[in-house]
Write a structure and sequence with these properties.
Length: about 325
């Protein structure tokens, strides 16, 4: 069983790669929900949906989010009625949010709602939210404090970032099955997701870092950084705001409590020794430009985990 901490477009691509090389039942995906929002009265979980769509073969290749080939007539109609339309929901995508909202209103947990949605999409992997509680990523900028979606989508991550916090995390609990998956997995992988706003909210939920630190299984991460820049998105700006260098050293520092190995771009591997990275560093093509790249990176991550023997007998304390 392979447990994966994931979120964002890089996380969805990596999960697609894993789905090409592993039986679907072997995957347990622990997914960021710090990006969740209520939009047009609907509860939207962008990362949960991207992972579900990726596993169902429905994820848009063009956009990296939403349903492939979706239309946006409802969005256009809402805009005509004077409703905000900067956050885009496709017409088929809306069905997912309608079902989730109804289930939550009926008293079901986010874990239960996710299970039903995943089952309806005929996904056989286990998809878990990081928590059933509300944890919201908040970005403090020179334009005030924004939700992550306001910062990322509405403002196109142009404001200068001063800090990031995860509102509600301190009182949240891991969703059922999350800690068990980390503790019982044969391998724990951290996708090449934004360390601050895709993986950071997961780690902010009490108990998850402890489980990662104490598990006897290897913990392997894939860097979302090449050189001194993010592969995509605002990860660099967010890392700087949290006091991390925009480098593989900064990624390793974000995960230093529990990390055993880090996959990095070949051009970064040679300089790894200069960045005082305690984890083992493995060179790999981390860019995932197509399905072959995704599958190859998944195999590299699993091979890196198999090369680690220390955790099999001694957990990090």
């Amino acid at each position: 069983m392979i447990a994966v901490l994931t979120g964002g477009t890089g996380g969805a691509k990596f999960v697609q790669g894993l789905s090409h090389v592993l039986p679907p039942e072997a995957l347990v995906l622990i997914v960021n929900t710090g990006d969740d929002l209520v939009w047009w009265g609907l509860r939207v979980s962008p990362d949960l949906d991207s992972i579900a769509y990726a596993l169902a073969g429905m994820l848009s290749r063009e956009r990296g989010w939403g349903v492939d080939g979706d239309t946006f007539q409802c969005r256009d109609a809402m805009a005509l009625l004077g409703e905000p339309a900067w956050f885009q929901l496709g017409d088929r995508d809306i069905a997912t949010h309608l079902v989730r909202t109804r289930l939550l209103n009926e008293g079901h947990t986010l874990t239960e709602a996710t299970r039903q949605i995943v089952r309806g999409l005929e996904v056989r992997s286990t998809v878990l939210p990081m928590s059933d509680a509300k944890v919201e990523t908040r970005v403090l900028t020179d334009q005030g404090e924004l939700s992550f979606q306001e910062y990322f989508v509405r403002e196109r991550f142009r404001p200068s970032v001063e800090a990031v916090r995860f509102a509600g995390a301190e009182s949240a609990q891991p969703a059922p099955g999350v800690l068990e998956a980390i503790r019982s997995a044969d391998v724990v992988l951290i996708a090449p997701s934004n360390p601050i706003t895709s993986i950071g909210p997961i780690l902010a939920v009490p108990g998850i870092v402890d489980a990662l630190r104490e598990t006897a299984t290897p913990v392997v991460a894939v860097s979302p950084i090449v050189g001194n820049a993010a592969v995509s998105g605002p990860a660099g700006n967010l890392m700087r705001a949290q006091g991390l260098s925009v480098s593989i050293g900064g990624v390793a520092q974000a995960y230093h409590d529990f990390l055993d190995a880090l996959l990095v771009a070949p051009e970064d591997a040679a300089a790894a020794g200069e960045q005082e990275i305690e984890a083992r560093v493995h060179a790999a093509n981390i860019l995932m430009r197509g399905d072959e790249d995704k599958a190859a990176l998944a195999r590299e991550a699993l091979d890196a985990a198999r090369s680690i023997k220390r955790r099999a007998s001694v957990a990090r304390v």
